[in-house]
Write a structure and sequence with these properties.
single chain; alpha/beta; Rossmann fold; five-stranded parallel sheet; 41% helix
């Protein structure tokens, strides 16, 4: 299983908590944020994140997807982007930005594997 700090961004409180628990069970230390803007203002004392998990919930818009691509364009942190099925046609765009992509629904093991691939890509 994994280890290290993972920045988790999900606008939906319920999915944020599900991801937080799933990552803790997988051995990770989640730092949770409700928005990309909040995530960019990391709090003093936060452990530096080794990767980001971004959950674009069912209420997400195309502009949210564009902001995510902007966030990933720096390439400093690797990311796992979780998309609702209706964004499935944008998978290649997120992958081109360097993200691992999951389409909801997914198994926790798929999240762990994608996170490890993302972390390996950041160090390799």
């Amino acid at each position: 299983m994994g280890s290290g700090t993972v920045l988790v961004i999900a606008p939906d409180e319920r999915w944020l908590r599900v991801l937080e628990i799933t990552l803790r069970l997988g051995g990770y230390t989640p730092a949770t944020r409700r928005s990309i803007s909040d995530a960019l203002r990391l709090r003093t004392g936060d452990e530096p994140a080794e990767a980001i998990v971004l959950d674009l919930g069912t209420d997400s818009t195309t502009s949210d997807a564009e902001r995510v691509r902007e966030l990933l364009s720096g390439g400093q942190l690797r990311a796992v982007v979780i998309l609702p099925e209706r964004f499935e046609e944008q998978i290649d765009e997120f992958r081109a930005a360097g993200a691992e992509v999951l389409i909801r629904p997914y198994q926790p093991s798929a999240l762990y594997a994608a996170l490890e691939r993302a972390r390996a890509g950041a160090s390799g």
